[in-house]
Amino acid sequence: MKRLTILGSTGSIGTSTIDVIASRPGEFRVVALAGGRNLDRLAEQARALTPELVAVADAADASRLAGRLPATIRVVSGRDGLVEAARHPDADLVVCGLVGAVGIEPTFAAVDAGKDVALANKEALVAAGAFIVARAQATGARILPVDSEHNALHQCLRGESTDQIKTIWLTASGGPFRGWTKDALAAATPEQALKHPTWVMGPKVTIDSATLMNKGLEVIEARWLFGVSAARIRVVVHPESIVHSLVEFVDGSLKAQLGRTDMRHPIQYALTYPDRRPSTLPAFDLVAAGPLRFAAPDLECFPCLQLAYDALALGGAAPAVANAANEVAVAAFLSHRAGFYDIPAAIRAALNRHAGAPAATLDDILDADRLARQTAIDVLASGVQS
């Protein structure tokens, strides 16, 4: 029986992970959960899964939750609680479904403890990929990507040599604004941006998909996961979201992974790796899928993708800076305090000011994250738009 910690258990990835566990009785045991502010859902999960440890956002929530759970379940809180859950001594695999930079420290803690990580938190590798990957290599921890695109690449690269890769192709749905003009995008609302055409995701990831920043973050993540340069990582818009990603090899051959738009597929792959197990999900119907289309991304209308490439080229703390500014700007956009194009404006301003920040340690990265957030707040408050 594989023993799991689930970080972000009340979110989209966390609940899908629990669905997969329920479909495979007797194969998994959850030893720790970490959730956010949804105490009702977290309490329900904890009562059903009976973990040894549950982590919540703050001490007040921890006290409230502890009164609703059996005394055998210990409740912890805050940043230290997340790290404790990630390092749980009984866990064989840590599923990280946290959203945003909050996932950096627990992901590092898990690999530092030698735990395999099923990683859906792309921001951890975007901001601190060099440190996390190096530590995983030192401890023998495996990082198994859960994002559909990187999971697809992981499957395509099984049995292949990295030096045989010509190009990694990340597919992008194009989001809800594919084909929109710049004028229309400038007036786009959060409500419109949240209507993703193919995937059901949390609000932050859905907005990132609408701006194509999600794909930019994935480019940076792929660089660390697969050890290839940015020049060999490209993005192609694929509206149907059937081909989850492709690898082009030096001999001209391409391998692609296709499947339904259901995150339970990549989650199960990561949970059962290196084995493949039968799935309870409906089979994919190739005939019903219909024609598959591909197009180049529009970098003029969606500048966030190029900004991510720029941050990767700058190196050091720059990816952490871009990620932090994006998180602040997306939150402002979701609450109607910023426009669509304020998001790339905040990222660009933060990169201009902090891209050269020190990046010798994990603390340097966290400091750069903090400084970039303040710059983004200041830029958005000024009302300046690029």
What's the CATH topology label of the largest domain?
Rossmann fold
Mean pLDDT: 95
| Largest sheet: spatial strand order | 4-3-2-1-5-6-7
CATH architecture of the largest domain: 3-Layer(aba) Sandwich
Q: Keyphrases for this structure?
A:
386 residues; alpha/beta; Rossmann fold; Rna Polymerase Sigma Factor, Chain: A; 3 domains; seven-stranded parallel sheet; four-stranded mixed sheet; 11 strands; 47% helix; globular
Task: Tell me about this structure.
This protein is of the alpha/beta class and 386 residues long. The protein has three domains: 2-146, NAD(P)-binding Rossmann-like Domain (Rossmann fold); 148-260 and 286-303, no CATH class; 315-386, Rna Polymerase Sigma Factor, Chain: A (Orthogonal Bundle). The chain contains 17 helices and eleven strands. The chain has helices spanning 12-23, 39-49, 59-66, 78-86, 104-112, 122-139, 148-156, 182-186, 190-193, 203-211, 213-226, 264-272, 286-289, 304-314, 318-334, 342-354, 362-382; strands spanning 2-7, 28-34, 53-56, 74-77, 93-96, 116-119, 143-145, 165-172, 233-237, 243-249, 254-258. The strands form two sheets. The protein has a seven-stranded parallel beta sheet, with helices on both faces. Helix 15 packs across helix 17. It starts with a strand and ends with a helix. 51% of the residues are buried. The model has no long low-confidence stretch (mean pLDDT 95).
